[in-house]
Fold this protein.
Amino acid sequence: MPTLHCPLDALAGEGLLPWLARIQRGIEKESLRIHHDGALAQTPHPASLGSALTHPCITTDFSEALLEFITAPHETPEATLAELTDIHRYTHQHIGDEILWSNSMPCPLGTDGDIPVARYGSSNIGTMKTVYRQGLANRYGKRMQTIAGIHYNFSLPEAFWPWYARHCAPTMGWQDLRDSRYLGLIRNFRRYSWLLLYLFGASPAICRTFLGKRPHKLQTMDGLALYAPWGTSLRMGDLGYQSNAQEALYVNYNDLRSYIHSLRTALATPHPEFTRLGIKVNGEYRQLRDTILQIENEFYSSIRPKRVAGREQTPSAALEQSGIEYVEVRCMDINPFLPLGIDADTARFLDLFLLGCLFWESPPSSREEALCMRENTRRTVYEGRHPLTRLLTLDGERGLREWGQELLDGLQSIAALMDMACGGHAYRNSLQQQLAKLADERLTPSAQVLSQLRTRRCSYFDFAMELSEQHARNFRQQALPEATLQQFRQWAASSIAEQQQIERTDNESFDDFLARYFSH
């Protein structure tokens, strides 16, 4: 069982519980806009949703059709999900006859030419966002970029860290302790995130059209879907969001300076394939630059240290200046059975898991361990529900279920503390749900998806379309309170006005803007 960094039971008597009750969590959720026949929407980002460049909670990701909803951080899972519900209601009621795709793996997409790259207006910052996405399209193809997921943003209040430093590391500055513990959280998360793929993975099957002629090892289910019989989250495997150019990239999470240096090295190192592609050809940008990463956000990771950056500030500059503010979990599939793709019990377990990763001892990691982590992800993606699946450690192999049981047992005391802090038994109940899934793989979302496909003998497309239509009807039938409706209308109008103001005040060429941005 993992060892705690600091004795939590003793800290509970010193005032830990009020801090646990003030954990901040926010959600970012991606969804494709589609028509009722399943075709990807070709319409521009709806003006009724505001400016994708400046709106506080409704934007786009890679494609003009790939919406991204962003909640503010909240102190309870219920408040976070209530805001996400309002965003869904407003959006469904303002996208005409279109609906949102309910799954992580996308609908039939047509050709790459049928996938519209997101547009953010004529300003330099808006142009940069579009060129970056065009670079992704040229580097990896557009299909991979349409895969959707849920990001979970997690932090403890900033004022927690001076308190924690006094009790657990009195000789260490609280900012250094904060950065050290968040990086320790990230190292542990990368060691153990395979457990989240097992418990919450919901993409064991994909539409037959998604891969085209790309080689694969999936099986065919009655000619209706491609699937991995014991799979969990194909989205997180080599058929999903991956980059061959990043295969050899080792990012060091042992301290903040090393992490920033790792990313900046990738930003400065040309990649032969991307150099051949060219940067600006015949006056048009094909990518922002020809290095391994165009910008830091291109680094594909299951979790990131984050700090809210200024509009023209790089993420690493924000981290270097002010340290880590929160962590962003990026490995969660959309659960197609849930209207929001996530529910309060899932959020509560993520809180527990992240607190465990934070408070458990977290030794430095290495290149060798990073290879074990990558292999464990692969094994869980394709064979995670098989009762005999084994995972790698630096000391040899372990059974997935044995190791998972040990980790969940290690969360029992944290669940008890969270229930003491928040009242009730919700955290222990959430943990019990995950223990049941570990004991019986049929309870996992991935097993339930495959069960639906088998029982109903329907295609992946028909399965996902039915759920998409059902969720859309439910959200459209839920009227928003007038004050909430007016708030969304105000955000839409003010975001459009803000974008126009940015465009009016741009006074340098795009080339000069990029040179200045990358010089920071």
Q: What stands out?
A: The chain has a mean pLDDT of 95. The longest helix spans residues 482-505. Residues 8-519 form a domain with the Creatine Kinase; Chain A, domain 2 fold (CATH 3.30.590.20).
